[in-house]
Task: inverse folding
C-alpha cells in the first residue's frame, strides 16, 4: 500500500497537514516528525500539537498507521550512556501517543555522534554499533508493549554506522525480534551510490517500510519519485515483486516552500504517482 508523508506540508501544524492531505483525497498517511519539530522550535507545546492530532484523526476516515519517530539531536544523545535513559523516556512518550492514534509501525533512525579525537575508525564504528544496539534493545521493550513495530532506516551520512546494508543486517540479526524490521530510504541509498533495488535485495526479508523519494544522487532533496531519472524505479518494483514485498511505501516528499499553492501542486502530482505505484504493486502481486 502507498502512503504519503505529512512532511509535504512541514510548515503546517501536524493536524492541519493531515487535514490538507485528506482534502486532496489521501487517506493512507504517514505522520512525520517534521511538522512537530517545526512548531516546537517556534515555541509551541508538544502536548498541544499531539492533542490536536488526536482530535482530527477522530473525525476523519484515515488509514494512518505509520509514523516517524524523532530524529536529529533527539536521538543523537542516545549514544551517550548517561543520557540514554532520558532519550528512551522521550521516545516512550511518542510511542504512547502513536499507540493512542492507531500507529503500528514506526520508522526510527540509528543514533550516532561524532568520533572522539583519540578514536580510530574501527573503534568509532564499534562504539556507535554497540550503543545503537543497546538503545534499540531498550526501546524495543517499550514499543512491543504498545504494539508498535520498529523499522530501522538506513542512514544518509556516508561512513556513519548504518549507511550500509550489512550494518542493518547485523542489528536485525543480533536483536532477533520479529517486531524489528528495516525502512529502506531510497534517497539515502542513492546518495551513497546504491540503487535502491540492490539495497532492497540485500535486506528483502526484513524490509517492511520504504521511504520513496528522489534526488540528484548527491543531496537528500526529497523530490517526487520519477522526477530525476537517478533512481531506477522499475528495477526496484521488479525486486519488490520477485521477493514478495508486503510492506508499506511512503511518498516522503518535501515541498521546500512555505506556500500552500506550491505544495498543493506537488500533492496533485503525488496523487498520480501513488496511483501508478499502486498499479505496479497490484500488477506484480
Result:
Amino acid at each position: 500500500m502507498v502512503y504519503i508523508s505529512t512532511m509535504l506540508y512541514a510548515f503546517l501544524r501536524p493536524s492541519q497537514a493531515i487535514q490538507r492531505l485528506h482534502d486532496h483525497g489521501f487517506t493512507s498517511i504517514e505522520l512525520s516528525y517534521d511538522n512537530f519539530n517545526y512548531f516546537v522550535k517556534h515555541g509551541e507545546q508538544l502536548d498541544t500539537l499531539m492533542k490536536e492530532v488526536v482530535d482530527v484523526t477522530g473525525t476523519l476516515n484515515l488509514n494512518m498507521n505509520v509514523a516517524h519517530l524523532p530524529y536529529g539531536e533527539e536521538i543523537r544523545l542516545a549514544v551517550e550512556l548517561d543520557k540514554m535513559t532520558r532519550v528512551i523516556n522521550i521516545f516512550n512518550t511518542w510511542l504512547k501517543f502513536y499507540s493512542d492514534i492507531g500507529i503500528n509501525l514506526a520508522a526510527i533512525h540509528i543514533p550516532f555522534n561524532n568520533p572522539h579525537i583519540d578514536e580510530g575508525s574501527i573503534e568509532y564504528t564499534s562504539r556507535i554499533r554497540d550503543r545503537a544496539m543497546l538503545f534499540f534493545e531498550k526501546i524495543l521493550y517499550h514499543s512491543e508493549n504498545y504494539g508498535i513495530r520498529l523499522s530501522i532506516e538506513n542512514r544518509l551520512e556516508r561512513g556513519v554506522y548504518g549507511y550500509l546494508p550489512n550494518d542493518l543486517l547485523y542489528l536485525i540479526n543480533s536483536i532477533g525480534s520479529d517486531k524489528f524490521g528495516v525502512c529502506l530510504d531510497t534517497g539515502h541509498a542513492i546518495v551513497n551510490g546504491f540503487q535502491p533495488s540492490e539495497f532492497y535485495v540485500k535486506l528483502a526479508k526484513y524490509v517492511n517500510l520504504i521511504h520513496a523519494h528522489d534526488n540528484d544522487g548527491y543531496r537528500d532533496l526529497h523530490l517526487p519519485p520519477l522526477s530525476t531519472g537517478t533512481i531506477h524505479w522499475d528495477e526496484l518494483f521488479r525486486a519488490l515483486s520477485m521477493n514478495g514485498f508486503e510492506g508499506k511505501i511512503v511518498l516522503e516528499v518535501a515541498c521546500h516552500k512555505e506556500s500552500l499553492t506550491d505544495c498543493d501542486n506537488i500533492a496533485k502530482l503525488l496523487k498520480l504517482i501513488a496511483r501508478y505505484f499502486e498499479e505496479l504493486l497490484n500488477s506484480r502481486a
